[in-house]
Batch of 2 targets.
Target 1
Amino acid sequence: SQELEQSPQSLIVQEGKNLTINCTSSKTLYGLYWYKQKYGEGLIFLMMLQKGGEEKSHEKITAKLDEKKQQSSLHITASQPSHAGIYLCGADIRRKAGANNLFFGTGTRLTVIP
Amino acid sequence: DVKVTQSSRYLVKRTGEKVFLECVQDMDHENMFWYRQDPGLGLRLIYFSYDVKMKEKGDIPEGYSVSREKKERFSLILESASTNQTSMYLCASKASPLHFGNGTRLTVT
């Protein structure tokens, strides 16, 4: 989606390394969602952020929403092969009243080399 | 846990065929969505529904229609399948957060 820019498009890391994925919008993000997708499968919900400056963690994954609510980052510490997959950010940007306002980035394909 | 079930994981259809993709959710959610996912384009919204018999067009409704006769079931219909509709189709329910099915990979030959 042009509404959300996600970077990088792909990432290859050695097991044990840290990594960061970014999601940026020119509009205010009213809700920011991170999902993970195994190849050929559906999206698994990871975390939701709503307040500026909010940070959430689950196991080795931390997601943050900046104070201006226009950028989010997903950080994985000590990556493992089980972290491999496609990470997508989705956001509510309130494009117009009455319509669905949830947009998605194009995803980041993460490969973790054992 | 919310369960969103898509009836087929893989489908192969011929150009011109009428195709039905079925989605069922078990949590009494009012909102249901159909997306397609293509490399480099991400998820794009086709249609969504916020109640039985109610539907709204998403960003790419052309060539598709939907049906919501019961709250738990939301069907996507390709009236006359074309090769450019070869894609991964994802159904979702609720809105915050969305809960997705496992997807249907449709190939139109």
Target 2
Amino acid sequence: GAVVSQHPSRVICKSGTSVKIECRSLDFQATTMFWYRQFPKQSLMLMATSNEGSKATYEQGVEKDKFLINHASLTLSTLTVTSAHPEDSSFYICSAAHGDVYGYTFGSGTRLTVV
Amino acid sequence: GDSVTQMEGPVTLSEEAFLTINCTYTATGYPSLFWYVQYPGEGLQLLLKATKADDKGSNKGFEATYRKETTSFHLEKGSVQVSDSAVYFCALSDENTGNQFYFGTGTSLTVIP
């Protein structure tokens, strides 16, 4: 149980376009989901906390107008990278909270390449 | 602030070799410590955890002991298998920072037959 599906796993887009990444909890309801970003050879960094039915909470230094997060249902959160640039190329991964504070399930991640 | 430092990889071992992946942490409070594993093409999975000093987390032959005196949580396995090939992440969660997770950079392990 507690499976999180993240799609797509890889995406290549042109500079200036927008890309949407989906994170779904398949067998549980997730009122809270998290979005992380990982640069090569660096840690996963929390970008934002996504709460169902309300605005996301962004970490310091993360542009909320560039990284749009929508958590419209208890099983789906989306991250849209708007007007993507090559420096946005990275590995993005979501996680969903379930149960107690240690109950986090991660998606398989999305490798975004902006050309 | 809170942070996690783990051994850089990649690490390549022969089957049945002993594995150690070092992890040290910095935290303002009393964090819980975790090891996550990411197999190729899959999401991060919780491997083991320890919530207080001197606790030992264990799972699938892997062990790690929460050492407050050395602020460490090294991952060990006595005899690795090819199926253990994956990326391993050390992480902490600190209630002083709203239980936000802080991850290490990940260590890639390849086990060869």
